[in-house]
Amino acid sequence: MIRTATPADVPVIHTMIRELADYEKALHEARATEEQLHDALFGEHPALFGLIAEDESGVPAGFALWFRNFSTWRGTHGIYLEDLYVSPAKRGGGHGKALLTELARICVERGYHRLEWSVLDWNEPSIGFYKSLGAVPMDEWTVFRLTDGALAELGSTPR
User: Fold this and answer.
1) Active site residues
2) Are the CB atoms for 112 and 79 separated by under 8 Å?
3) Which residues neighbour 85 within 8 Å (Cβ) at sequence distance 6 or greater?
4) How far apart are CA 65 and CA 85, in angstroms?
5) 40 near 7, Cβ under 8 Å?
6) What distance in Å separates the CA atoms of residue 127 and residue 30, rounded to the nearest whole number?
7) Residues 6+ apart with CB under 8 A from 51
8) What is the layout of strands, in order, in the sheet containing 76-86?
9) b/e 114-139 (16+ beta carbons within 10 angstroms → b)
10) pLDDT on residue 9
11) Can you give the pTM of this predicted structure?
């Protein structure tokens, strides 16, 4: 049911990313190309990793894209789950739980002490699902992000 993504999966991952962006009301922000995804996952120095959830017919039902992070407090690497998505028609079939279970297994196997991700505060179905697995919301933390003009402006500030 869960397997490592291959280069042949890039088009379906790309399509599902766009579906996820549309669900999150941010399709206009989903600018990644298939080529960029291929390079990130399978290029000379891959920094992104992927899992595919398949249905009983072997058809991709969802995906998880993740990368290693590091906890200075724990002194170990962890996994940051960038995206987890299951196609609407395939939800409720255990694919999301299977993807998270595999990520947890990877953490345990490699001695990583954290598996973390973000969820939109309005996404109550996902929040409920994550809590049912024992995940704890980090309500006291706020995510900050620099993109586009603000990133370019700060990045071009003289040293």
Assistant:
1) 130
2) yes
3) 16, 17, 19, 20, 62, 63, 64
4) 9
5) no
6) 23
7) 2, 3, 4, 5, 63, 64, 66, 99, 102, 103
8) 2-4, 49-54, 60-71, 76-86, 115-117
9) ebebeeeeeeeeeeebbeeeeeeeee
10) 98
11) 0.93
Token pair 């990045």 is found at 155
pLDDT by residue (tens digit) across 78-132?
A: 999 999 999 999 999 999 999 999 999 999 999 999 999 999 999 999 999 999 9
**Residue 159 in this model has a pLDDT that exceeds 90:** no
Q: Which two tokens stand for residue 63?
A: 């995906």
Using alpha carbons, select from 23, 17, 101 the residue that is nearest to residue 63: 17
Identify the residue whose tokens are 């000379």.
Answer: 44
Token digits for 31?
């600018």
Query: Which residues have CB under 8 Å from 83's CB, separation 6+?
Result: 17, 20, 63, 64, 65
